[in-house]
């Protein structure tokens, strides 16, 4: 064992640390007021030594558009960049500099004690407890009653895994954003690497906009993929590890959808007029007035077919139906997960899947076999309002879809595209019913209390807050183990200065955004 390993290993033990003498105390035990941040920083300087250099995800070199790209292995942290971050994280603080305010950089002694462990690219998931006996409850039966607040540790782990699946979709998109034009629409995106190897990706998904960016509006300096109509938006995966299937009590099929990334997708986001979800509502004005409706732009991305790829709707239904047939006779579940725009597309997908799978089950079952379609749940991170009250009611009561909305209190995206008033409640936007898991950036020990809109909507910030959330009014978990490397790379301006300073001391330095606009970030280790 090296000298470095010998020094850093004790920090992973559960015994009390010099930085956090009260680590084993209960949540109600007050910290001694005499122990201030400066004392803990001094202790940190004595205990933290320079770790081995962290791996460097290399930025792919530019290649001509007509040449095939070499296969690149994407990492879950490689999901946003300087210019790409504006699109993916709704970086309003960049557009509106006056929204950024200075704040006092205070740092929790408890968080300092875990600094060395958290500054790693390999997150440590919480222990995998068996949920086989209650898997339907963890999948949303009963609207997650008794599991959300306080947050059940098994539910936390499951939701974190689904969030990491979305991170993998972002990473795969930015590693090869124009792959739709290379004929990968029917198979697996070749740069997709799932963070949990218990699941296997079975099909890539592409969303197509009905809008086209006119040539005069396309900047020559912009990446060629930015105005493309069809783009990789996610994937379908299935758990094919038998041990994990037994732990979960069923085989899980997951549909994963990322948020906004291209110009046509942003343009579709602005089309907020409500339109009927189905085309078979007839010409009866009364029926249309009370029909389930959703935002026109979301529906366009969901139903429009591309030149070489099917519509997102058709691709999802086709692949999930195929997997249900492959694993016929087993206990199955379908989970649709998305962030931002992907959260709205997830609701549309769940609505369609529920109707199709119910029809399939009804046509194939007999009166005696009692065959039921697999339950469908949606896990939404930072999702906007998608449709009207009729759509939300149909999704919950008629379709039987369980929706878990993970919301950051400071995320403005969750409050758009409009506020429903008493006068417009019947036709105004409302959130889909279900359970809400409400987080707050101000609870984080390492994020600034005035974190900007970009940080409040950022998926990595969501997962960081989720990992530390114990319940309303409770402190950030002392044993939260998710790496903060992603926050240091993607939300550096929103991380408290004490964390940035300590990261430099121990040899970790987040990279600056790439100036080439290719959507890649790296991690820089200080030279030894």
TrEMBL record:
Basic and acidic residues compositional bias: what residue ranges?
Answer: 63-82
Give the Fungal lipase-type domain ranges: 254-418
> Can you supply one Gene Ontology CC term for this chain's record?
chloroplast
User: InterPro entries per the record?
Assistant: AB_hydrolase_fold (IPR029058), Fungal_lipase-type (IPR002921)
Record localization: Plastid, Chloroplast
Some GO term, biological process aspect, for this entry: which one? lipid catabolic process
Query: Region (Disordered) spans which residues?
Result: 1-36, 48-84
State any single GO MF term.
phospholipase activity
Q: Which residues form a coiled coil?
A: none
Record's keyword annotation contains Mitochondrion? no
Q: Which Gene3D superfamilies match?
A: alpha/beta hydrolase
Pfam families documented for this protein: Lipase_3
Write the record's keywords in alphabetical order, separated by commas.
Chloroplast, Hydrolase, Lipid degradation, Lipid metabolism, Plastid, Transit peptide
Protein family: Belongs to the AB hydrolase superfamily. Lipase family.
PANTHER family, A to Z: PHOSPHOLIPASE A1-IBETA2, CHLOROPLASTIC
Q: What is this protein called?
A: Putative phospholipase A1-Ibeta2
Q: Which organism is it from?
A: Festuca arundinacea (Tall fescue)
């Amino acid at each position: 064992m090296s000298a470095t390993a010998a020094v850093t290993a004790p920090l992973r033990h559960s015994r009390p640390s010099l930085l956090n003498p009260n680590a084993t105390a209960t949540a109600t035990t007050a910290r001694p007021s005499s122990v201030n941040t400066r004392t803990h920083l001094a202790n940190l300087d004595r205990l933290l030594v320079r770790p081995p250099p962290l791996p460097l995800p290399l930025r792919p070199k530019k290649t001509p558009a007509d040449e095939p790209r070499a296969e690149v292995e994407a990492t879950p942290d490689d999901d946003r960049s300087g210019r790409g971050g504006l699109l993916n994280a709704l970086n309003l603080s960049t557009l509106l500099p006056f929204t950024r305010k200075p704040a006092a950089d205070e740092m929790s002694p408890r968080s300092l004690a875990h600094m060395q462990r958290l500054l790693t690219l390999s997150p440590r998931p919480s222990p995998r407890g068996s949920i086989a006996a209650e898997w339907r409850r963890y999948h949303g039966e009963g609207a997650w009653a008794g599991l959300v607040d306080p947050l059940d540790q098994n539910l936390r782990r499951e939701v974190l895994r689904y969030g990491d699946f979305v991170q993998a979709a972002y990473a795969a998109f930015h590693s090869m954003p124009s792959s739709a034009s290379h004929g990968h629409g029917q198979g697996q995106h070749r740069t997709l690497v799932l963070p949990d190897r218990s699941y296997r990706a079975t099909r890539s998904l592409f969303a197509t906009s009905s809008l086209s960016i006119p040539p005069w509006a396309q900047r020559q300096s912009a990446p060629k993929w930015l105005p493309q109509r069809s783009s990789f938006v996610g994937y379908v995966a299935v758990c094919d590890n038998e041990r994990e299937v037994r732990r979960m009590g069923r085989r899980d099929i997951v549909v994963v959808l990322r948020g906004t990334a291209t110009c046509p997708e942003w343009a579709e986001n602005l089309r907020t007029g409500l339109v009927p979800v189905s085309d078979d509502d007839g010409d009866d004005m009364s029926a249309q007035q009370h029909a389930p409706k959703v935002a026109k732009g979301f529906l366009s991305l969901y139903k429009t077919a591309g030149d070489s790829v099917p519509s997102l709707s058709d691709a999802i239904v086709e692949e999930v139906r195929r997997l249900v047939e492959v694993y016929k006779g087993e206990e199955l579940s379908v989970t649709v997960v998305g962030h931002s725009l992907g959260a709205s597309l997830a609701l549309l997908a769940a609505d369609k899947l529920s109707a199709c799978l119910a029809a399939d089950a009804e046509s194939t079952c007999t009166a005696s076999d009692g065959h039921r379609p697999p339950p469908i749940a949606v896990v939404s991170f930072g999702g906007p309002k998608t449709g009207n009250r009729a759509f939300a009611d149909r999704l919950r009561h008629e379709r039987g879809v369980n929706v878990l909305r993970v919301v950051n209190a400071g995320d403005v995206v969750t409050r758009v595209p409009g506020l429903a008033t008493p006068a417009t409640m019947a036709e105004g936007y409302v959130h889909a019913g279900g359970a809400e898991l409400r987080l707050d950036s101000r609870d984080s020990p390492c994020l600034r209390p005035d974190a900007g809109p970009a940080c409040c909507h950022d998926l990595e910030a969501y997962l960081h807050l989720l990992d530390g959330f114990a319940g309303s009014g409770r402190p950030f978990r002392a044993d939260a183990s998710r790496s903060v490397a992603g926050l240091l790379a993607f939300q550096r301006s929103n991380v408290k200065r004490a964390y940035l300073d300590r990261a430099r001391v121990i040899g970790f330095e987040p990279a600056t955004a790439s100036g080439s606009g290719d959507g890649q970030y790296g991690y820089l280790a200080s030279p030894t």
